[in-house]
Write a structure and sequence with these properties.
Immunoglobulin-like, 7-stranded antiparallel sheet
Length: 786
C-alpha cells in the first residue's frame, strides 16, 4: 500500500511539473502573414518554465524577451535583425514541455518569380508568381504582363543581356528580378587584394630564390673573368676559384604607379680568385700565379617590378636594374714584384667591379621576373572542370585591372562560369539571378578591423551564374539509387514508414531529382548565416521496382521549393565552398500519387525531409567553380567572411598565407570525439533506435538506446600542437558523402537520419593548414523501434 502511495505521488509530481511548464505561442499565429515585424507573445499555463529557450531562425533570442510568471513578450522591433523576408521559424523549448513552434511570413518583398521554362532560342519565358499577400501586377522589361490562372504567365521576351522583371503585391511591396544571359562576363566579378604582409612573403620567396643561385657555376663560365696586358711586357688573367656569402635579404616597397621597388642585399660576398700571368718577352718570359680573395661588405641590387594587365593576362617587366659592389679589400698572396705588378691591385679591383656589376644585374633580372610571375601567376584562372558524372563547367577569371596603393596590390578579375555542353535532361532556363552593383576593392583590414595577408570580394552574380551553369550542365538533375546514395533502400526509408506503407525489403528504390530552375543565393549581412540558398520548382519522383516488374515505375512525385541558410568556407584546393548544414524549409506545391502501392502522406513528406539534406551537400560539392586568389607555394587560411559592397551583393573573405613547406613540416592535430545519442524520447511508430557500434579514440561507447527522429550529436574536441597560432577547425562527412566546410566547432548535430548503418568521419586542422592524419569515425545503426 505504501509503495502504491509513493507511486501515486511520484506520478502526481511529474504531472504537476509538466503542467507548470506548459508553454503556448499566442502570437504570431502559425502561417500568419505580416508586412511588419510581428510582436511575439508566449503564455505559461502554470508559471514560468525552467530552461526556457526561444530561437528565431536558429538564432537564440531568449535574452530579447521580457519574462513573467504568466508569459513572455518581445517586440517586433527588437527581433527585426533576426527576421528573414518570407518564412520564419519560431521555436520555444523548456524543461518538461514539448517543443512549440510556429512558421510565419514576414512579407516585405514583392511576389517571387518562378521561371519554369526559359528558352532563349524560342524567345519564350513561362512561369508563375507566388506571394502569400496576393499579387497585384507584373512587368517584363517595362511591358505589363497579363497573368493567367494561379498567377501564371507565358510570354515572348526579347533576348536582352539583362531581363528585368518587376512585381508588386497587395501590400504594395515591390520586387525586381533581373536575369543575366548565360554569356555574361561580369566586370569585375572578383577583386583580390594582397596586403603588404602578403607581399612580404614575396620578399621571402625572392630571398630564397636568390640564395639558391649557383653563383659559382655562373661566374666560372665567365673565366677568365679579367685579362690585363702591361705594355707588352707582362700579361695577367683573373679566374674565379670559389665564393661565399651570407643569406640575402630583400625589401619590397609598393609604389603608387603599378610598381614594386625591390632592394636586395647580399652581405659578406667574397670571391676566391687565381691571378696568373707571364712577365718578360717570350720566349724568355716567366710564368707565375698567385691566389687571392676579393672581399665585399655587401652587394646591393635594386630593380623596379612593373605590373600591368595586357590582353587579360598579367604582364611583369623589370626596369632600372642597378648593382653596387661595396668592395672592402683585395688580398693577393705571392704576387711577384716584377715590373711593379703588385702595385696594380687597384686595376684588378676596378676591372672586377666593371665585369661583376652587369653580371649581378643579369642575375637579379633572371631571378625576380620568374619568381614574381610564379608568385601571383595563379590568381588568374582559365579552365574546365569535369565532374565524376561527366558534367562540365568552364571557368574564367582573368585580370581586368591592376593597381598598387596603400602598400597593397589589387587585381580585379572579370569572370564567368558557363556550361560548355548543356544537358538535354535539364529544363531550359532563361538566365542567372543578377543584381546591379560594383564589386568593391576591399580595404586594408577586415570588417572587424583585423589585418590580413590576402583577401577578395566576390560578386554574388558570379555565384548565381555558377549555379545556373550547374543546372544547365545537368549537375542538379540527378538519379538517386542505392548504388550511389547510402540509405536509398527499404532499410533507409524504414524510419519514415508507418502503418499502411507497403515498402518491402526486396524492393529496389530509386528517386529522380528534376528541377525546373537553377538554385540561387541571396546575401544577408548577419551573423550565423551569410545568406540563403533558394531553389524553386524541384520535382522529386519516387520510383520502385518490385519482384516481377520489368522496370522501375513511378510511385509518386512531389514538386517543391526550398530555402536553406548557408555559411562560407574554402576548399583545400582554393575554391569558395557553400556550407549547407541546416535543414531546409520545404514548401510543396504539387503532388502526384500513382496508387501502385499503398503509401501514407507521412511517408511522402518523410522522403522530402530525409533526402534533401543529403542531396544539397552533393550539389554544393559539385559547385567547385568560384576560384579564390591563389599564391604559388602558399595556402590560404581564411580568418573572416563578411558581406560587402553598397548593394550588399558581394561575399568578402580574407586570411593568412601559410607556406606549404611550413604546413608539411608542422605536427598534425588529433580529434577527440564523444558520441551522444539525440533526444531520449520514445514515440510509438516514429521513434528510431540508434546503436553506437564503434568508437574511436576518446569516443564514449553508448548502449543501444531509443531516440526520437534518429538524431545524434558528436561532441568534438582536439589536441592542437600549434595552439599559439590559432585554434582548431573541424569538418565532417556522413557515410562517405561530401565534406562539410572547415570551421570551429564544439559539436556536430545530425537529425532526420535515414535507417541503416551510418558513419560520421571528423577531421581537424590547425591554423597552419596541417590536417589530421587518419581521421576518427563514429559508427552507429539507426533502425525502426519495435
Amino acid at each position: 500500500m505504501q509503495s502504491m502511495v509513493k507511486r501515486f505521488f511520484l506520478i502526481l509530481t511529474v504531472m504537476v511539473l509538466v503542467a507548470c511548464g506548459e508553454v503556448k505561442i499566442t502570437a504570431p499565429a502559425n502561417n500568419a502573414v505580416t508586412p511588419t515585424p510581428p510582436d511575439v507573445t508566449l503564455t505559461f499555463a502554470k508559471g514560468s518554465p525552467t530552461g526556457l529557450k526561444i530561437t528565431l531562425n536558429n538564432k537564440d533570442v531568449t535574452a530579447l524577451f521580457t519574462v513573467s510568471s504568466t508569459g513572455a513578450t518581445a517586440s517586433g522591433a527588437s527581433l527585426k535583425d533576426s527576421l528573414f523576408p518570407g518564412k520564419n521559424l519560431l521555436v520555444v523549448t523548456a524543461v518538461g514541455t514539448a517543443k512549440q513552434q510556429v512558421v510565419f511570413n514576414y512579407d516585405i518583398e514583392g511576389p517571387a518569380v518562378h521561371i519554369t521554362n526559359g528558352n532563349r532560342t524560342a524567345g519564350t519565358v513561362a512561369g508563375y508568381l507566388d506571394d502569400v499577400g496576393g499579387v497585384k501586377s507584373m512587368t517584363i522589361d517595362g511591358a505589363a504582363i497579363t497573368l493567367g490562372a494561379n498567377n501564371s504567365f507565358s510570354v515572348q521576351v526579347a533576348n536582352n543581356p539583362i531581363t528585368r522583371i518587376v512585381t508588386v503585391d497587395n501590400f504594395g511591396n515591390s520586387s525586381t528580378l533581373e536575369l543575366a544571359r548565360r554569356d555574361r562576363e561580369f566586370m569585375p566579378a572578383i577583386s583580390a587584394r594582397l596586403n603588404n604582409t602578403g607581399l612580404a612573403f614575396l620578399g621571402d620567396v625572392l630571398e630564397e630564390a636568390l640564395g639558391k643561385v649557383n653563383f659559382q657555376a655562373l661566374m666560372q663560365k665567365l673565366n677568365p673573368i679579367l685579362s690585363l696586358t702591361f705594355f707588352g711586357l707582362a700579361d695577367m688573367r683573373v679566374d674565379v676559384q670559389d665564393l661565399a656569402f651570407d643569406k640575402p635579404t630583400i625589401d619590397l616597397a609598393v609604389l603608387d604607379n603599378e610598381r614594386l621597388q625591390t632592394h636586395a642585399v647580399i652581405p659578406n660576398f667574397s670571391i676566391g680568385i687565381k691571378v696568373s700571368g707571364r712577365t718578360g718577352v717570350c720566349p724568355f718570359c716567366l710564368p707565375w700565379s698567385a691566389g687571392g680573395t676579393l672581399y665585399m661588405n655587401k652587394v646591393n641590387l635594386d630593380t623596379d617590378i612593373l605590373l600591368n594587365v595586357v590582353n587579360k593576362d598579367l604582364a611583369i617587366d623589370l626596369n632600372n636594374t642597378r648593382a653596387f659592389l661595396d668592395v672592402n679589400r683585395l688580398d693577393i698572396n705571392g704576387l711577384p714584384n716584377i715590373l711593379g705588378i703588385e702595385n696594380l691591385a687597384g686595376q684588378i679591383v676596378g676591372g672586377l667591379v666593371n665585369v661583376l656589376m652587369p653580371f649581378f644585374t643579369g642575375v637579379i633580372d633572371s631571378v625576380v621576373g620568374p619568381v614574381v610571375s610564379d608568385f601571383i601567376g595563379e590568381i588568374p584562372v582559365n579552365l574546365t572542370l569535369t565532374t565524376v558524372e561527366g558534367e562540365k563547367l568552364k571557368i574564367k577569371a582573368l585580370p581586368q585591372y591592376l593597381d598598387t596603393f596603400d602598400n597593397s596590390l589589387t587585381i580585379d578579375l572579370g569572370a564567368s562560369v558557363i556550361a560548355p555542353e548543356p544537358s538535354a535532361a535539364a529544363v531550359p532556363a532563361w538566365g542567372s539571378v543578377y543584381t546591379a552593383g560594383d564589386t568593391p576593392t576591399i580595404g586594408a583590414t577586415t570588417k572587424s578591423g583585423k589585418p590580413f595577408d590576402i583577401g577578395a570580394a566576390i560578386s554574388a552574380n558570379l555565384i548565381n551564374q555558377a549555379l545556373f551553369a550547374a543546372h544547365e550542365s545537368g549537375i542538379t538533375t540527378m538519379t538517386i539509387r542505392p548504388d550511389n546514395t547510402p540509405g536509398a533502400n527499404p532499410q533507409g526509408v524504414s524510419v519514415i514508414q508507418g502503418t499502411g506503407d507497403d515498402i518491402q525489403q526486396t524492393d529496389t528504390i530509386g528517386m529522380r531529382l528534376e528541377p525546373k530552375s537553377a538554385p540561387f543565393i541571396s546575401l544577408m549581412d548577419r551573423d550565423g548565416a551569410f545568406g540563403r540558398l533558394s531553389w524553386y520548382d524541384v520535382k522529386l519522383s519516387f520510383d520502385l521496382k518490385r519482384a516481377g516488374w520489368a522496370e522501375y515505375q513511378q510511385v509518386f512525385s512531389a514538386t517543391f521549393s526550398l530555402d536553406v541558410p548557408f555559411q562560407l568556407g574554402a576548399t583545400d584546393d582554393g575554391y569558395l565552398q557553400l556550407g549547407l548544414e541546416q535543414l531546409p524549409t520545404i514548401t510543396v506545391s504539387a503532388t502526384e500519387y500513382k496508387g501502385l502501392i499503398p503509401l501514407t502522406p507521412r511517408f511522402i513528406n518523410g522522403i522530402l525531409e530525409r533526402f534533401m539534406p543529403l542531396v544539397l551537400p552533393r550539389i554544393a560539392e559539385q559547385l567547385k567553380a568560384i576560384p579564390l586568389p591563389k599564391i604559388a607555394g602558399y595556402g590560404l587560411y581564411p580568418t573572416e567572411f563578411w558581406i560587402s559592397g553598397t548593394g550588399k551583393n558581394n561575399l568578402s573573405l580574407a586570411g593568412r598565407l601559410v607556406k606549404m613547406t611550413t604546413t608539411q613540416a608542422a605536427p598534425a592535430p588529433t580529434s577527440l570525439l564523444a558520441f551522444v545519442p539525440g533526444t531520449q524520447l520514445v514515440a510509438a511508430s516514429t521513434a528510431t533506435t540508434t546503436t553506437a557500434r564503434a568508437t574511436t579514440m576518446a569516443s564514449v561507447a553508448q548502449p543501444s538506446i531509443t531516440v526520437q527522429n534518429g538524431s545524434v550529436t558528436v561532441n568534438v574536441d582536439g589536441q592542437n600542437p600549434s595552439l599559439l597560432v590559432g585554434g582548431l577547425e573541424y569538418r565532417f562527412r556522413v557515410d562517405g558523402g561530401p565534406w562539410s566546410i572547415w570551421k570551429a566547432r564544439s559539436k556536430i548535430e545530425l537529425t532526420n537520419l535515414l535507417g541503416g548503418d551510418h558513419q560520421i568521419e571528423v577531421c581537424s586542422r590547425t591554423a597552419l593548414l596541417k590536417q589530421e592524419q587518419g581521421c576518427p569515425t563514429v559508427a552507429f545503426t539507426t533502425a525502426v523501434a519495435q
